[in-house]
UniProtKB/TrEMBL annotation:
InterPro entries: Rce1/LyrA-like_dom. Coiled coil: none annotated. The keyword Acetylation does not apply. Keywords: Hydrolase, Membrane, Protease, Transmembrane, Transmembrane helix. This is CAAX amino protease. GO terms for molecular function: endopeptidase activity. The chain crosses the membrane at residues 12-32, 38-59, 79-98, 118-136, 148-166, 243-264. One of its GO terms (biological process) is proteolysis.
Length: 282
């Protein structure tokens, strides 16, 4: 595949995504109340991402959708594994900031509104995880890895993942760097575990846990009435401030550590595959 053809495919998938976003958001916006105005954007945007990736893959690559990262034998198990890692990834900096006094718990709140908000956030973050992972790690990373290999493929897809968040509020240079690291970590997880379900589970739990703890998720909030009411009191470069933990140095260290763990898993998997292949060809 030459570079011009690759650029053309990327342009097409982004063009279809933009057109799909305009169509679906316009269609869904009147169906949601004003206080949930983020939901039609989330649902519309990520529906467009999924459809654009599937359409361009089927049309231009003419290959089964399984090759995007859906060929895993136990998808639910892989999703739960990713969700476990994602929950752990938020629990570590949360507890760390809590023990240092740089994050405080001001109280608890529970009502019917809390349940409604949580249900809405749960569905919203699942849609986000599916949309962004299928487009970025599924379609874009798969193309890039086939063209240039795993390292360049993951890095390029991660840069485009950053670009998807350029319009988010309270964005900082550290937030952008951490988004890039998150992209590398999720891309490495895809290669390490052989599919999309682990990064989808991680992405979903990572976002949902932050929102449940009343922390901003990439500068956004889906829950008006969180169970836990928290307040950041430490330096912004550590806590992330209005963008959330993803803009803090505590998460930088965590993302690098997780990437290293997944990279080792990927290396072990590659060695295992090579061993079995060599055994079969003897």
């Amino acid at each position: 595949m030459n570079v011009l053809k690759l650029v053309g495919k990327l342009f097409l998938v982004f063009l279809l995504s933009v057109l799909g976003i305009v169509f679906f958001v316009s269609l869904l916006f009147p169906l949601y109340p004003v206080h949930r105005s983020l939901m039609p954007v989330i649902v519309g945007q990520n529906t467009a991402f999924v459809l654009a990736a599937f359409l361009v893959w089927a049309w231009l690559e003419k290959k089964p959708l399984d090759e995007l990262g859906f060929a895993e034998p136990s998808p639910f198990r892989s999703f739960l594994r990713g969700a476990g890692w994602g929950s752990f990834g938020i629990a570590v900096p949360f507890v760390l900031l809590l023990t240092t006094g740089w994050l405080r718990v001001d109280g608890f709140h529970f009502s019917s509104s809390t349940v409604t908000d949580f249900t809405s956030a749960l569905s919203g973050f699942l849609i986000v995880a599916l949309g962004e992972e299928i487009l970025v790690r599924g379609y874009i990373q798969t193309l890039m890895v086939r063209q240039w290999g795993r390292m360049i493929g993951i890095i390029t897809a991660s840069l485009l993942f950053c670009a998807l968040h350029l319009g988010n509020p309270n964005l900082s240079w550290l937030a952008l760097f951490n988004l890039f690291l998150a992209g590398v970590m999720l891309g490495t997880a895809k290669e390490a575990f052989g599919g999309l379900w682990t990064p989808i589970g991680f992405h979903f739990a990572w976002n949902l846990c932050q929102e449940t703890l009343s922390l901003p998720v990439s500068g956004l909030h889906l829950i008006e009435h969180p169970v836990l009411i928290t307040r950041e009191t430490g330096p912004v470069w550590v806590t992330g401030g209005g963008f959330g933990l993803e803009a803090g140095a505590a998460v930088t260290v965590l993302l690098i550590s997780l990437t290293a763990a997944f990279w080792l898993q990927n290396r072990n998997r590659t060695k295992s595959d090579h061993f079995h292949t060599s055994g079969l060809t003897r």
